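To the wet lab folks,

You asked to see what we're planning to order before we commit. Fair enough. Below is the target structure as tokens, and below that is the sequence we designed to fit it. If anything looks off to you, flag it before the synthesis order goes out.
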């Protein structure tokens, strides 16, 4: 989950920073963060009109997603698998993401064979029934657990992180 938290630092979205990591056998195979597609003006540079409307308070979270040009972090991680040719290696993987997946990203996760989603927060456009029907386990973990490790890493970089 710390890797997903780090990935979100690359986000160029002006309304929400999200990071995602796909893991197979405890090894990271793909990372994603939310933002505009490559070669398109960044969201924070005015690239996404929907995000600007959200910042102005004219749209609520989850509204007008069909007008957003930003890719979600989870979608970027999934597309990165395709770009790298990971393809069939995504079966029975775990997706770590800073927010639970929206409907579109949930459908992509189901399609590529993700079996577990671990997240820190909710999202207004999540279909938990769909995820359950597809046999995907969703685990929401307490952000305080991650904050503890971030604090340990920042304040005591020489700390022994291996449980004894």
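Sequence we intend to order:
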């Amino acid at each position: 989950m710390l890797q997903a938290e780090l990935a979100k630092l690359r986000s160029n979205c002006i309304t929400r920073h999200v990071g995602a990591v796909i893991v197979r056998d405890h090894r990271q195979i793909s990372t994603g963060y939310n933002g505009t597609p490559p070669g398109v003006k960044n969201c924070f540079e005015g690239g996404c009109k929907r995000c600007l409307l959200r910042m102005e308070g004219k749209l609520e979270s989850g509204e007008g997603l069909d007008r957003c040009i930003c890719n979600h972090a989870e979608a970027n991680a999934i597309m990165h698998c395709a770009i790298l040719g990971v393809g069939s290696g995504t079966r029975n993987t775990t997706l770590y993401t800073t927010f639970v997946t929206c409907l579109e990203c949930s459908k992509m996760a189901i399609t590529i064979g993700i079996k577990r989603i671990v997240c820190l927060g909710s999202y207004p456009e999540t279909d938990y029934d769909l995820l359950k029907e597809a046999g995907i386990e969703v685990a929401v973990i307490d952000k305080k657990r991650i904050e503890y490790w971030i604090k340990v890493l920042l304040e005591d970089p020489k700390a022994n992180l291996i449980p004894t």
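Structural context that might help your review: Helices lie at 2-7, 49-55, 73-84, 103-112, 128-133, 143-155. The mean pLDDT is 89.

Thanks,
Computational group
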